[in-house]
C-alpha cells in the first residue's frame, strides 16, 4: 500500500483555489489507487515547531556537536516533521502565491525539515549532496495566483513562487515533479482556468 501526503499552505478553506484543485487531485487519486492511504497535512494547524532553538541546534550539529536541552527538544520536533514529510512515496503540495512568493508557513516548513544529514550534505569541494534522491518519491505541486500570470509584464509581479519552490525540491533530490497551474489573472476567464486546472489535476492523479 502506498501513501499520498497532501501538504497544504493555504489558510483560506473553502475560498482557496489551491485547496479546491488539491481536492480534485486527491479524489481522483483515491478512485484510481484503491487501498492507498491519503493524509492531509495542513501547515496552519500548529504542528510545525518553532525553530529558534532549532536554528542553534542546526549549527551545533554542523560543528559536530550534539544538541542538548532546549536545542535537543527543538531538534527532535524538527525530526518528527521531517519523518512525516518523508513517510510518503507520493507528495502533493498546494501552494498559493503570496506577494510573489510562497506563504510564510511553507517557508517555515522548508526551514524546519531542511537539515544536514536529513535533506542535504555539504562538502567544501563538491558542494551540496541531495539526500532525498533515489527514493522514487513523486511530487505534484498546485501553483495558484490571482494577479500574476505567464506572459504578463513586471507591473503584475514576478514569479518567485514556483522558481523558489521547484529549486528547493530539486535541491533536496526530489526531481520527479509534476505541476498543476491556475493563473487566471485579473481579467482572465476564471471558469475556463478552473476547468483546465481540474483536468490537469485528474490527469496527473490517475497515474501518480
From TrEMBL:
Q: What is this protein called?
A: FMN dependent NADH:quinone oxidoreductase
Q: How is the cofactor bound, as the UniProt entry phrases it?
A: Binds 1 FMN per subunit.
The Enzyme Commission number assigned here is 1.6.5.-, 1.7.1.17
What's a Gene Ontology MF term here? oxidoreductase activity, acting on NAD(P)H, quinone or similar compound as acceptor
Highest lineage ranks of the organism?
Bacteria, Bacillati, Actinomycetota, Actinomycetes, Streptosporangiales
Reaction it catalyzes: 2 a quinone + NADH + H(+) = 2 a 1,4-benzosemiquinone + NAD(+); N,N-dimethyl-1,4-phenylenediamine + anthranilate + 2 NAD(+) = 2-(4-dimethylaminophenyl)diazenylbenzoate + 2 NADH + 2 H(+)
Q: Which residues bind FMN?
A: 10, 16-18
Bilayer-crossing residues are none
Domain of life according to the entry: Bacteria
Domain named Flavodoxin-like fold: which ranges?
2-202
Q: What does this protein do?
A: Also exhibits azoreductase activity. Catalyzes the reductive cleavage of the azo bond in aromatic azo compounds to the corresponding amines. Quinone reductase that provides resistance to thiol-specific stress caused by electrophilic quinones.
Q: Which organism is it from?
A: Sphaerisporangium rufum
- SUPFAM superfamilies in alphabetical order: Flavoproteins
Amino acid at each position: 500500500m502506498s501513501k499520498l501526503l497532501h501538504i497544504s499552505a493555504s489558510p483560506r478553506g473553502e475560498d482557496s483555489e489551491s485547496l479546491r484543485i488539491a481536492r480534485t487531485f486527491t479524489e481522483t487519486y483515491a478512485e484510481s489507487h484503491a487501498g492507498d492511504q491519503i493524509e492531509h497535512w495542513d501547515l496552519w494547524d500548529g504542528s510545525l515547531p518553532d525553530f529558534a532553538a532549532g536554528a542553534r541546534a542546526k549549527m551545533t550539529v554542523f560543528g559536530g556537536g550534539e544538541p542538548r536541552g532546549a536545542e535537543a527538544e527543538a531538534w527532535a520536533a524538527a525530526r518528527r516533521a521531517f519523518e512525516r514529510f518523508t513517510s510518503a512515496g507520493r507528495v502533493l503540495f498546494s501552494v498559493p502565491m503570496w506577494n510573489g512568493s510562497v506563504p510564510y508557513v511553507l517557508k517555515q516548513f522548508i526551514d524546519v525539515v531542511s537539515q544536514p544529514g536529513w535533506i542535504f550534505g555539504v562538502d567544501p569541494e563538491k558542494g551540496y549532496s541531495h539526500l532525498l534522491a533515489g527514493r522514487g518519491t513523486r511530487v505534484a505541486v498546485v501553483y495558484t495566483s490571482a494577479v500574476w500570470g505567464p506572459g504578463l509584464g513586471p507591473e503584475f509581479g514576478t514569479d518567485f513562487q514556483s522558481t523558489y519552490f521547484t529549486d528547493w525540491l530539486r535541491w533536496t533530490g526530489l526531481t520527479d515533479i509534476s505541476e498543476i497551474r491556475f493563473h487566471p489573472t485579473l481579467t482572465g476567464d476564471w471558469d475556463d482556468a478552473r476547468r483546465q486546472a481540474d483536468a490537469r489535476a485528474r490527469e496527473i492523479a490517475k497515474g501518480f
